Description:
Blueprint: H1 2-12, H2 16-28, H3 33-46, H4 50-56, H5 62-92, H6 95-113, H7 116-124, H8 133-149, H9 157-165, H10 173-189, H11 193-202, H12 215-227, H13 232-240, H14 243-246, H15 253-263, H16 267-280, H17 290-309, E1 314-316, H18 317-323, H19 328-340, E2 346-349, E3 354-357, H20 359-393
Antiparallel strand pairs: 1-3, 2-3
Organism: Spongospora subterranea
Keywords: Cytoplasm, Nucleus, Signalosome
Protein name: PCI domain-containing protein
Amino acid sequence: xxxxxxxxxxxxxxxxxxxxxxxxxxxxxxxxxxxxxxxxxxxxxxxxxxxxxxxxxxxxxxxxxxxxxxxxxxxxxxxxxxxxxxxxxxxxxxxxxxxxxxxxxxxxxxxxxxxxxxxxxxxxxxxxxxxxxxxxxxxxxxxxxxxxxxxxxxxxxxxxxxxxxxxxxxxxxxxxxxxxxxxxxxxxxxxxxxxxxxxxxxxxxxxxxxxxxxxxxxxxxxxxxxxxxxxxxxxxxxxxxxxxxxxxxxxxxxxxxxxxxxxxxxxxxxxxxxxxxxxxxxxxxxxxxxxxxxxxxxxxxxxxxxxxxxxxxxxxxxxxxxxxxxxxxxxxxxxxxxxxxxxxxxxxxxxxxxxxxxxxxxxxxxxxxxxxxxxxxxxxxxxxxxxxxxxxxxxxxxxxxxxxxxxxxxxxxxx
Length: 415
């Protein structure tokens, strides 16, 4: 199983994204020495990231200590050579070569040394040098990507929102799709699931961007965010009937099953599949931290509770607890939360373990429903009466028609 996961990660991601996810994999199972050793070997073969190796090499291995010393020396030499190359480009006053030299230094910091803040500083210095609009967009995407790698998702929102709202965004649909997905990740990180779901659903085609995420990642996060914030009617409309999710490959089968079961009121199975989706596929997702996972599952469960209690005047909390695989106190805690948030007009009878619906609120809802039905009935009856009058008295509404278009006259009697 571990080899399969590592193989999937190495095939799907590249650069710092792969390193970050392997690091998350090590953190999710600290006792798995095989995963840790694989990660150490990968760092030693592909990077000179001594700070990250030091964090995971516990207890320290003497061989790794010697490697860190050699790696620091090699990185200093490569960085010095890159700086000298930049000075030569500046002396020649060749703008394109200067840009290439700065990008090389930033990539050295990011991909080799693991210092994303230093990479951002280098890339930001290019903002005044880049003139071509396409290169500006690519530069902005590179800076935003480094922000994400550095764990600073909250800093990317203003710049992305300004660009997406600008007129230039229409000329770069691929980059805009990636930036929107990053914006959605920032909302998920802040527990704003509804905003994240809206943004992801607004993307015509979910992008595959190995530097950060895959299409399957975004699909699962879309389903997770939507289930945590949308009601069943909206889930059916925006996801169940959406071609982007109907024709998904088998890799997202758990997401589709969870969504389908939630809409079919099979809440226990839906929550079980959500848990499996997170534990099997999203456990190494660096943007889905522990508090985000807990908040998402809690939101989905509470949304399911609202759908479960809506048809009834009273609910036995013992039966409800079995449906959601919870204890009665846990069920009561969630119900009290929904009542305090104003989402559930009801009251809890702790002594008898019963949830009583608010009858006054029910009468108000029933009256409003009856009012709508009667309004439709009156409108339909009025239209029918007018039609009967037109037929009975041969009334023609509209401009004069030619003889060939005139309808036949006749009598219409109501029995």
